[in-house]
Amino acid sequence: MITFTCSLAENVSRKVRQLDLAKTRLYNVIQRADDILDLKFCTDGVQTALRNEDYEQAAAHIHRYLSLDQSVIELSRQGEESSAVDASLVMLQEAEQKLKVIVAEKLDEAVAAVDLAQVERFFKIFPLLGLHQQGLARFGQYLCSQLASKAEENLVLATGGDLGEKRAPLVFADTLTLLLEGIARVVETHQPIVETYYGPGHLYTLITHLQQECDQQAQKIVDKFIQQRGYHNKFQIVQSSMMKSVPGETIEPRELDPVLTEVTLMNARAELYLRFLRRRMLADFEVGDAQSVTQEHQQNVEKLLKHCLLSRTMQELIGYYIPMEEYYMRESVNKAVTMDTYEKGQLTSSMVDDCFYIVKKCISRALSSSSIDCLCAMINHANSVLESDFREVLYNKLRQGFPATTLQDIQRGVSSAVSLMQSSLQQGNIFKINDCSKLFNQGAGSGDQAKIESCLSDLVNTSAKFKDLLQEGLTELNTTAIKPQVKPWISSFLSISHNIEEEEFNDYEANDPWVQQLIVNLEQLMAEFKTALSPVIYDTLTSLMTSLISIEMEKTVLKCSFSRLGGLQFDKELRSLVAYLTTVTTWTIRDKFARLTQMATILNLERVTEILDYWGPNSGPLTWRLTPAEVRQVLALRIDFRSEDIKRLRL
C-alpha cells in the first residue's frame, strides 16, 4: 500500500513538473512573439513620429524598445526572421541616436530663447531615452542661468539702489534671502516634474547643480557685505583690542550692533534654506529606497549640505561674529558699570538693568542665528561676564555699602545693596532664554540639545551664585543695620518685671509696658527699608529680622524670672508680637517662634507636674522643640516652682 502511494505521488509530481515546464515554454513563446511585434511596432512608429516631429511619441517608442528583454531579441535574431529583426534593430538604433541629437538641440534652442514651456517639454523626453543625468544637467544649467541673472540684478540694486532707512542696515541679508527663496521656489515648483518623469531619487542631482550656482551667488553677496560693512576690518580692531593690555585703536560697540544683527540674520536664512533642501531630498529618496540605501543617501545629502560653499562661508562669518559679539557685550557691560546711577525712588541702579539687558540681547541675537555652536559660545561668554566681571562689581559694592553701623549710614547701605538684590530677581531673564531654547531644540539633534542644556545649566548655576550673593548682602544688612537696633529693644524686656501680682498684671493690661513700643519701633525701622526695596527682597529681609527677634527673645527670656501671672503676661506679649509680624511678611513665622511659644506654655502652668499632661505620649499633635533639659531650665524661671519638684520630673 505504501509503495503504491509513493509511486502514485511520484507520477503526479512528474506530470505537474512537465505541465509547469510546458507553461513556462509557452509563456516564453508568447513573450517572444509580443517582443517581435513590439519591435516591429516601435520600428514603424518611431519613423512616423520623427517625420511628424512628434518627439514625445518617438521617445516613447524608443523607450519601449530599450525596455525589451535583450535575451529574447538575441533569440529572435537566431530564428527564421533574423534578417527582419536585424533591420528593425538597426533602424531603431539609428532613430535613437538621431532623436538624442534632435532633443538636445531643441532643448538648447529653448534655453537660448528662454522659453520655459519648450525647455520643460524636451526636459521630460530625456529620461525616455535613458539620459537622466544629461537631462538634469541641462535643465539645471538653464535654471542656474535664470537664478544668476536675478541674483546679479538684486545685488546691483542692493549696492547702488536707493533703499529706505529701515531696511538699509539689512540689505545684504535681504539680498541673500531673495537668492535662497528663489532657489527654494524653483525646487518646490519643479520637484513634481522631476519625480513624475525621472522617478524618485533624482531630485538630489538637480539640487546639486542648483547648489553650485547658489554657492557662487551667495559668495558674491557675502564678499560685498564684507567689503561695504568693513567686516574684516572691524574684526581685526576687536581682536587687537581684546588681546592688547595697552589701549590702541578701539571701536564703539554701537558701530558693531547693526553688523552683528545682519550676520545672524544671514546665517538664520541660510540654515532655514539648508533645512528645506534636506527635507526635500530625504523625502524624495525615501519613496524608492530600501533601508540600507537610505543610509547611504542620507550621508550624501549631509555631505552636500555641510561641505557646500554656502555652509562654509556662513561658518566663517559666524567665526568672526562670536568674538565681535563678545567684545560688544563686555564693552557695553563695562560702560553700563561706569555710567551707573541710582535715582531716588527707583528700586535698582541703572547698572543692573542695563547689564542684564545687554547680556540678554547678545544671547537672543546669537539664538536668532539658528547656529547651535554660536548660541553655546555666546551663552558661555555671557556666563563668564556675569560670573566674573559683573558679580565682582556687585561684590565690591556690597563690601563698600555696609561698613556703617549708625542710622545715618543705613540708607547708604540700602542704596548700595539695591543693585545686588535686584540682580537676583533678574534670574527671570535667564530663564526666558531657557524657554527660547525649547523652540530652538525642536530642530536640533540630541547632541546639539545636550550642548545647549549644558550651557544653560552653567548659566543657571551662575544665577544661583547671584542668589547666594543676595543672601549674603541681606544677611550683612540684617547684621549691621537691623540687629544693633533690635537687640536693645529686646533687651529692654529685662527692665520690665514679670514677677508680678494681680494688681500689676491689671496695670500692665491697661498700660502695656513693653510689646506695643517694640512693635512701633519695628514698624518705623522697616518702613525705611520697605520704600527702598522690592517686595520680594523686603519680605526676605523681614524674614531674617523675625529670626533675629526670636533668637534674641529666647536669650532674654532665659535671664528673667516669672510668677504665674508674669508667665500669662509673657504669653500675651508673645501673641501680640507674633500677630504683628505675621501681617508684615508673607513667610510663615510661627515655626520660628515655636520654641518661644512652648516656653510661654511652660511659664503658664499652674504646677510643675502639669507639664506631663503635654509631654511624651500626652503631647498629641504637638512636636516639642525644647529638650528635657531646656524644659527644666524654663520651669526654673518660675519663682513659685520648687527645684526639687522640677528635678523629680521624668521627662
From TrEMBL:
Residues in COG4 transport protein middle alpha-helical bundle domain copies: 92-399
InterPro entries named among the record's database cross-references: COG4, COG4_C, COG4_M, COG4_N
Subcellular location: Golgi apparatus membrane
UniProt KW keywords: Golgi apparatus, Membrane, Protein transport, Transport
GO process terms (BP): Golgi organization; protein transport; retrograde vesicle-mediated transport, Golgi to endoplasmic reticulum
GO cellular component: Golgi membrane; Golgi transport complex
Record has Ribonucleoprotein as a keyword: no
Membrane topology: Peripheral membrane protein
Domain of life, per lineage: Eukaryota
Pfam families in UniProt: COG4_C, COG4_m, COG4_N
Family: Belongs to the COG4 family.
Protein name in UniProt: Conserved oligomeric Golgi complex subunit 4
Organism: Dicentrarchus labrax (European seabass)
Gene for this chain: cog4
